[in-house]
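Much of our argument rests on the idea that a fold can be written as discrete symbols. The record that follows shows the chain in one-letter code together with its fold in token form.
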Amino acid sequence: MNLQPVVPFEPISTDKLPEGESWTAQIKWDGVRMLTYFDGHETQLVNRKLNNRTLQYPELTRIHEYCRAESVILDGEVIALHGGKPSFHEVMRRDGSRKAENIRRARQEVPVTYMLFDILYHNGSWLTGLPLRERQRILREVIIPTTCVQVTADFPSPDVLYEVMSKHGMEGVVVKNLDSSYALDGKDKRWMKKKIIQDLVAVVGGYTLRGGIVNALMLGLYDEEGRLWYIGHAGTGKLSVQDWRDITVQVAPITRPSRPFTTQPSRSKDAYWVEPQLTVKVNFLEWTPGGTLRQPSIQAVVTVDPATCKFGSS
């Protein structure tokens, strides 16, 4: 492939949503950020961590079925629905598949939708310097909506969209300045997000057992000095009985005698410690004054470099 993968632009968190004609609001999908690269010959899908996911989503590689461009880089999010709402746990069943047979099975069991919201490159030219409103116009011109590929809708009022998303239990909203360019590997207030459901990716530093099976995980985040701080334990969420059995197998070879946390976890008595190698996505209500998560809920086991799981990185 002649096009080299890039790190996509990221929104920053905000408590106050901007209003005005220069801003547009979009639904914050609870999915996997994914860029599609088509150099005129080959199509590849790469996530925001620059991991190739082409094999995991074969239905999205037939780019001529949904895109008119001769060459293109598209930015969007792959989502999977459960109960009528995007489910990160479901999409991770697709994203986490590695073997060909598992990929075929996951494709049959978990249909996905690619929600596109930006275009960075088109017919041999970079578009990142153009204002968002112009990039969106080009995106709408080149995309042919299908059952599995759609262009994310724009809404004029961020506050109204946030209220609607709150009522439906969605993840949140993203607001974008229509006059803004696209900064590769950037993150600033030209794009902002306000979450209804807070989430983060945490490092597993320990676990507890029930009947020989892991039933809860001890979670942590790193500070800037590389110290791992305990932020709570979680045994509820979207994981199935089989998921917990798989985790039991995964933690066995990395179990260690001493705790990896700088702080003493509240449930240390029955805990087993592990090398901080496993990471999970966690939803939670809020941070407590003691620096732990209130009502953490595990959504999925994810493949993330543990060293990137830091305070303020969500």
Q: What stands out?
A: DSSP finds five helices and 21 strands in the chain.
